[in-house]
Amino acid sequence: MTGKALPIIIAGNWKMHHGVKATAEYFQKLNRLLSAQKALGRALSEGSVQLIFFPPAIDLYTAYIKTKAMPVATGAQNIHWESKGAYTGEISVPMVKETGGGYALVGHSERRLIFGETIEMTAQKLEACFKGDVTPVLCIGETDNERSAGQTEAILSRQFDGAFGDISLEEQTRLHIAYEPVWAIGTGNTATPEDAECACRFIRERLTRRFGSRVSRKARILYGGSVKPGNAHELLSQKNIDGVLVGGASLDPESFLQIAGAALPRHPG
Ligand code: PGA
User: Could you identify the atom of ligand 1 that is nearest to the CA of residue 13?
Assistant: First the structure.
């Protein structure tokens, strides 16, 4: 490995927003905006900042075509653990790869809470991603009730431990985990930078215990939950926050790029 700094990850989860036409328009606008932001463009080309877009599955190919010439990545919001078969409504890792997708969200709280995704399913999905050469972003986080009951660390441990089976050393170099407290998602109640840092530090320690310090240092730990242009910089200044997963504020390319701008060092050129 070179001594190259690891990227700050700015990821946009569009959820069930933007169809094919809106996706094409989004990336046209993003391209226009990016060409006027030299410092950010440089950071993306050099790899010190990485933008990842998670549009609805039906938009993935359009997103790929529109971003082919741009230094950004795309991925799926959800995948199935089998590569093909009788699974109506699902998409697989090889299908995501074919559309140019390099990432997949796994275990987003909306999947867990609305669609009944279990911890065992997240483990199968992670394994399928690693095998299929798609980088998973495992989402973990506690609900409001669990937080009030002082169970945050217990929940994070359960979701973390349950998701990782026997993964190989090679796979361990691609660990991405998003701490997303459920009470902060879509509510405007962002976790304080201190609370977000505390949970992300806990995840880093968990990674160290499970995989060793080399792997945990290289892992990317993201915070998600009501991230906006106004709070991104403070969140990204925390020692153990290596990026953000943005829902609502990623739907407009302008606000998403403002958040990405918060990942740049102070005095951009
Ligand atoms: P939000 O969503 O930024 O709208 O709170 C974040 C997420 O669910 O990933």
Answer: 9
